[in-house]
Specification:
Blueprint: H1 3-38, E1 49-51, E2 53-55, E3 57-79, E4 85-90, E5 97-98, E6 103-107, H2 110-139, H3 144-170, E7 172-174, E8 179-181, E9 191-192, E10 199-214, E11 226-231, E12 238-245, E13 255-262, E14 274-291, E15 296-297, E16 302-308, E17 311-322, E18 326-331, E19 338-340, E20 353-355
Parallel strand pairs: 1-20
Antiparallel strand pairs: 2-19, 3-10, 3-14, 4-6, 4-9, 5-8, 6-7, 8-10, 10-13, 11-12, 11-14, 12-13, 14-18, 15-16, 16-17, 17-18
Helix pairs in contact: 2-3
Length: about 350
């Protein structure tokens, strides 16, 4: 027998002997395995995840939009004189309230008073001449043309007197509406013209609030909408109502201008002030809502977890309007169900939960 064949035979015999030694041990382990596994402790049951829940209920829900605005006086005018002349009287206190029609400033009217007296004398004489000519016309002494000339002259003098009376009235600068007078810019004895500002007059109760919204909300905001706003230096929220909407969108800013009115009996709000505005754009009086933190976004939509029989169940939902804290659920939930709002990272469908 050659050496290679002898080596192969020896190798095969060695493997057979090794197998004869290992097989009984393996068989004995297989027989002991069931007995050993029967005595091992069972796998622990999954622990319940502590969660917080929110009970779904019907409630009023309003979607608001934050923007900025500017306060304006209800009425505002710059007080000026309609005629040129010297100021002979200032009849108001700076920062004081005045009534409608109250005299604020008096312009020198002595020249106009003299012209009025002359016009009155002319008119009186013309009235007498017209009456005399009328009698003569009735007696046939004068013609109709001669009488008409005297009548026309009387009417001209009457018109001249009326014109002077109007000019005299303009020498008294009166308040066109009740309000508060600002700081004056003219002094006693100063010469003013219709272009000279004397003071400002503003009606501060109520005040107006101008603000704008993006054009996509133009169909949602109407007259009567509620507006809430805050101003610097006052630690409370003011509330107003939209009463006018600009009929066109600004082509440069693509925004819509709105104007609201707000009561201001204490004169706390000042025109020109900056306001942080919240306007209600949509409102649902009876909406099923859940906290925004309970919504779990997915690729195909949104879902929430509800507690049913001590375990968590997944629900696909559709949402509507949103506030700072709540989201409207338009489908997928019913009133009275309990939505999980905490521990969402540990919760799985069918997993036991315990409500804290």
């Amino acid at each position: 027998m050659s050496n290679p064949i002898r080596r192969l035979v020896i190798l095969v015999l060695g493997l057979l002997v090794l197998g004869a030694l290992l097989v009984p041990r393996l068989l004995s382990r297989d027989r002991e395995a069931p007995a050993g596994s029967a005595g091992a402790p069972a796998a622990p049951a999954p622990q319940a995840v502590p969660v917080a829940v929110y009970e779904v209920r019907s409630q009023r829900l309003a979607e608001t939009l934050a923007t900025t605005g500017t306060l304006r006086a209800n009425e505002w005018v710059e007080v000026v004189s309609e005629v040129a002349g010297k100021v002979v009287e200032i009849a108001f206190e700076e920062g004081a309230a005045v009534d409608r029609g109250q005299v604020l400033v008096k312009i020198d009217d002595r020249e106009l008073l003299a012209e009025r007296e002359r016009a009155r004398f002319r008119l009186e004489l013309a009235i007498q001449r017209e009456a005399q000519q009328k009698r003569l016309l009735a007696e046939g002494i004068i013609s109709q043309d001669e009488y008409d000339q005297e009548l026309t002259q009387k009417n001209v003098f009457a018109a001249e007197l009326a014109l002077i009376e109007t000019q005299l009235a303009k020498t008294e600068v009166r308040a066109p509406f009740a309000g508060t007078v600002g700081l004056r810019s003219a002094s006693l004895g100063a010469y003013v013209s219709p272009q000279t500002p004397i003071a400002t007059l503003q009606d501060l109760d109520p005040v107006k609030l101008d603000f704008s919204l993006p054009e996509q909300y133009s169909g949602l905001v109407r007259v009567g909408r509620a507006v809430a706003f805050r101003v610097k230096g006052i630690e409370r929220t003011f509330r107003g109502t939209v009463y006018a909407v600009e009929p066109a969108v600004d082509p440069e800013t693509r925004s819509l201008l709105l104007r609201a009115t707000c009561p201001n009996p204490e004169r706390e709000l000042l025109p020109g002030g900056f306001a942080d505005v919240e306007v209600t754009v949509r409102e649902v009086p009876a909406a099923l809502a859940v906290p925004a933190i309970a919504i779990v976004p997915e690729m195909a939509g949104k879902k929430v977890f509800v507690v049913e029989g001590g375990v968590a169940q997944s629900r696909e939902v559709e949402t509507g309007i949103r506030t700072a804290e709540l989201v409207e659920i338009t489908s997928g939930l019913r009133a009275g169900e309990r939505v999980i709002t905490s521990g969402l990272q540990q919760v799985r469908p069918g997993a036991p939960v315990v409500v804290e």
